[in-house]
């Protein structure tokens, strides 16, 4: 199958003007796992928001597949509830009616041949009635143990390949494996049916506006790139802190932990965008080649007892709310060794970055929800001031605030007004909310639209996913043979070992 030859050319998208809205061509989407949390809270609202913004084709078809014995009406009611609860844009009855017309539900389990044959018939008849033209995306929002059954069923029933025209794509949710070996096996299964160019692995962080802005900041400006290297940067901190606990997520999280849940994907992807060389263009091939190149140069720093930290939250206070510890959360093993906090030190063996540690940390039940990347500068080689004139001055920093309060902050020293000469830190702050009137779309809106448009730049490749596991696996193996994670109280900033990890290098974590 050649995607090039069947790619629908959008007449509204002029190649000369990339600022025009990109509208998906005739197409439909089948969601497996449509009754799950992710579909309800993110995917279905995002599809509605895209329709509401006029970015889906008028005949768009949405097919749910699941075990429930639902009629079309039941499915519509379910989707409507999800949309009303979580969509970003206001509810519009006309948009809803047109979208709902194209909804269908096929009932069955993943090992039920007849159900997949019925699904294939549904797609064929929908091609006639809605003009979807054989263009279908299959969204696998299911636990990884089901990937293989679904992919094989799509192959067996003939849905994985377009008949005489159209395209077929598969969109896959994380987690993509739990270590290198399992990721390789999943890639083997998926790629045995779908060519790599038709596989869209979701890392929803790449769909966030602020994450895409890393590329604008670095490559559309002149002032940052000259200092973006080991001559000027002392170290980089990548933080993804959440205040939520894990109540209700035991089934997915116990035995998985923070490193597999977000370092392997979101945080390592952020590192790649921060550290990669400038791609010659943002075409999928060129952007992803640069990310892969820098990931290949990235390795974990040892010894892991000093360069990594992991923790598990125990009961504490989240603001004024008393919260329980992980082991008391329902569904978790009372002896669970699952880490809810993970930190590690990575280094990049390249001319640009050698000697600059990249500290990554993430955790649940931390002080507050914040994701940010801080590039902390070296001190000037010489300062013509007395020590006490600069004692309130710390290292300069550029901080990319991914969320919330999206923006970019620069920290530098300024003279304190007055007759004395004293220098202390000040912040210069760019905030999306103040600079732009446009609201940022949700990450899933962007990614679903990109998949329908065959724009794969923001989707990690099989090689990137495997390399990320290769980076993380040695740390996971070390942890596995070294007892339980340290404890930290809910509402604090993680275990003492995380502070020690930076203190031994004479540094400290930012308190965002
Ligand atoms: C998911 C993780 O990938 O990202 C969750 O599985 C985490 O554990 C979530 O809560 C955070 O996403 P966001 O967009 O709210 O930062």
> What bound compounds does this protein have?
6-O-phosphono-beta-D-glucopyranose
How many DSSP H or I helices? 16
Calculate Rg over CA atoms: 24 Å
SSE class: alpha/beta
Sheet with most strands: 10 strands, mixed
| Helix content range | 25-40%
Q: Measure the end-to-end span.
A: 49 Å
| Overall pLDDT score | 94
Question: What's the count of strands?
Answer: 18
Shape label: globular
Unreliable sequence segments: 1-14
Strand content: 15-25%
GO molecular function: glucose-6-phosphate dehydrogenase activity; NADP binding
Organism: Corynebacterium lipophilum
EC number: 1.1.1.49
Function: Catalyzes the oxidation of glucose 6-phosphate to 6-phosphogluconolactone.
SSE topology:
Elements: H1 3-6, E1 28-32, H2 37-52, E2 61-66, H3 72-86, H4 93-101, E3 103-107, H5 113-130, E4 136-140, H6 147-156, E5 168-172, H7 180-193, E6 199-201, H8 209-219, E7 233-241, H9 250-253, H10 257-275, H11 284-296, E8 298-300, H12 304-307, E9 308-314, E10 316-318, E11 321-323, E12 341-348, E13 358-363, E14 370-377, E15 397-403, E16 407-415, E17 423-431, H13 432-435, H14 443-452, H15 462-480, E18 486-489, H16 496-503
Parallel strand pairs: 1-2, 1-4, 2-3, 4-5, 5-6, 7-13, 9-18
Antiparallel strand pairs: 7-14, 8-12, 9-12, 10-11, 12-13, 14-15, 15-16, 16-17
Helix pairs in contact: 2-3, 2-14, 6-7, 7-15, 10-11, 10-15, 11-15
Bound molecules: 6-O-phosphono-beta-D-glucopyranose.
């Amino acid at each position: 199958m050649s995607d090039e030859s069947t790619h629908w050319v959008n007449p509204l998208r002029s190649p000369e003007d990339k600022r025009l809205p990109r509208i998906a061509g005739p197409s439909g989407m089948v969601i497996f796992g449509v009754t799950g949390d992710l579909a309800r809270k993110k995917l279905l609202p995002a599809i509605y928001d895209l329709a509401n913004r006029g970015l889906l084709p008028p005949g768009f078809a949405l097919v749910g597949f699941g075990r429930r014995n639902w009629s079309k009406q039941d499915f519509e009611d379910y989707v409507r509830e999800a949309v009303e609860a979580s969509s970003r844009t206001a509810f519009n009855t006309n948009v809803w009616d047109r979208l709902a017309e194209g909804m269908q539900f096929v009932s069955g389990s993943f090992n039920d041949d007849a159900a997949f044959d019925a699904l294939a018939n549904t797609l064929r008849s929908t091609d006639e009635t809605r003009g979807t033209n054989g263009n279908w995306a299959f969204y696998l929002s299911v636990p990884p143990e089901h990937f293989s059954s679904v992919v094989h069923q799509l192959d067996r029933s003939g849905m994985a390949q377009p008949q005489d025209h159209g395209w077929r794509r598969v969109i896959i949710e994380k987690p993509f494996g739990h270590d290198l070996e399992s990721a390789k096996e999943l890639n083997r299964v998926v790629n045995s049916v779908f060519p790599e160019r038709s596989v869209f692995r979701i890392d929803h962080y790449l769909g966030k506006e602020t994450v895409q802005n890393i590329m604008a900041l670095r490559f559309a400006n002149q002032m940052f790139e000259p200092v973006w290297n080991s001559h000027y940067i002392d170290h980089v901190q990548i933080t993804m802190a959440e205040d939520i606990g894990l109540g209700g997520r035991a089934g997915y999280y116990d035995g998985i932990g923070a490193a597999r849940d977000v370092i392997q994907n979101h945080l390592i992807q952020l590192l790649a965008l921060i550290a990669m060389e400038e791609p010659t263009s943002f075409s999928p091939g060129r952007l992803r080649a640069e990310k892969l190149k820098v990931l290949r140069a990235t390795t974990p720093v040892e010894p892991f007892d000093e360069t990594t930290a992991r923790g598990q939250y125990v009961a504490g206070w989240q603001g004024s709310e008393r919260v329980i510890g992980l082991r008391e959360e329902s569904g978790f093993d009372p002896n669970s060794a699952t880490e809810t906090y993970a930190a590690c030190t990575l280094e990049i063996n390249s001319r640009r970055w050698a000697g600059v540690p990249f500290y990554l940390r993430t955790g649940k039940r931390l002080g507050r929800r914040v994701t940010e990347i801080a590039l902390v500068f070296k001190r000037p080689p010489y300062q013509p001031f007395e020590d006490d004139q600069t004692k309130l001055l710390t290292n300069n920093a550029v901080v990319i605030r991914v969320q919330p309060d999206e923006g970019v902050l620069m920290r530098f020293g300024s003279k304190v007004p007055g007759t004395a000469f004293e220098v202390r830190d000040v912040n210069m702050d760019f905030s999306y909310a103040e600079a732009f009137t446009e609201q940022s779309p949700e990450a899933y809106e962007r990614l679903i639209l990109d998949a329908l448009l065959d724009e794969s730049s923001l989707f990690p490749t099989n090689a990137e996913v495997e390399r990320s596991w290769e980076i993380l696996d040695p740390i996971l193996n070390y942890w596995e043979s070294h007892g339980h994670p340290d404890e930290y109280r809910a509402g604090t900033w993680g275990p003492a070992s995380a502070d020690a990890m930076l203190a031994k290098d004479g540094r400290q974590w930012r308190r965002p």
